[in-house]
Amino acid sequence: xxxxxxxxxxxxxxxxxxxxxxxxxxxxxxxxxxxxxxxxxxxxxxxxxxxxxxxxxxxxxxxxxxxxxxxxxxxxxxxxxxxxxxxxxxxxxxxxxxxxxxxxxxxxxxxxxxxxxxxxxxxxxxxxxxxxxxxxxxxxxxxxxxxxxxxxxxxxxxxxxxxxxxxxxxxxxxxxxxxxxxxxxxxxxxxxxxxxxxxxxxxxxxxxxxxxxxxxxxxxxxxxxxxxxxxxxxxxxxxxxxxxxxxxxxxxxxxxxxxxxxxxxxxxxxxxxxxxxxxxxxxxxxxxxxxxxxxxxxxxxxxxxxxxxxxxxxxxxxxxxxxxxxxxxxxxxxxxxxxxxxxxxxxxxxxxxxxxxxxxxxxxxx
Length: 366
Known about the structure:
Mean pLDDT: 77
Shape: elongated
Distance between the termini: 146 Å
Strand order of the largest sheet: 4-3-2-1-5
Number of strands: 8
Largest sheet: 5 strands, antiparallel
Number of helices: 12
Helix content: 55-70%
Strand content: 5-15%
Order of helices and strands: HHHHHHHHHEEEEHEEHEEH
């Protein structure tokens, strides 16, 4: 093998790299100009993420087209190995480019929808959930197809392809039974995405824990609780068991504050002070308020204050603030209204006379 046979592949490889880099830079320049001319369309900016996989596809395709003439005729095994490696790399790069392009198109559509939806946060969360799952389905589908295409490049896999197709029915039944739970979660994830039962950002209560839905995948769902814990649950839970969705039909909520007071508590004044507290609080949304006596016992009365807020987080803070404000106001101005534990001693009375001394029997001395 002479010097020409060694330098020729190196020159072609260097030229391919330079051509690929130049083509990538030109593509990025065109996308940047298109993005500057059409700022209302985020697609062009998102497509810039496809630069690297596009360069890889272009470079691999060029090398695959010229690798046979470059290699020495006596290196047939080397040529076949290089061709197979380049083919596998081309399939992987094409799958990467397809996923990046599809994701850019999907994200662009979601961004335009979210910008035009305005204050309709519930619809935006629903579309966001659907877009997230569509991206995952796209990536999984392309990955499976690319893996199958890469396996079919090997002659041994093509040879057994016919027998695999013939036994596909039996294998499908066996796989369905073995992966029943996984397939159930998969279809449950699709049902959640397009059935609009729960969305990313919804406030839910599951197993006595309340939090916000942070992530939804094809198989599991993550709920972030108020104390920053993450609860991971299978999505089939939300299609087979009851749960509370506080964001369904709107995020506004109404809450209550209960106080146990003395029977002499000034309820009308307490009701007026509740109104003053709510007017001064930015957490109150102005929809609902009230204070009534809901129960009475021999020692106390139960007072219920009703307040409303725009979401669950504000409602929790507002209930705490109202409870603190009412109790503090009663302590400062009407301490007699707070419940008391009454203790009393036995009422005084006449002293009971001592029992009479029994007389001794006759004939006995004292």
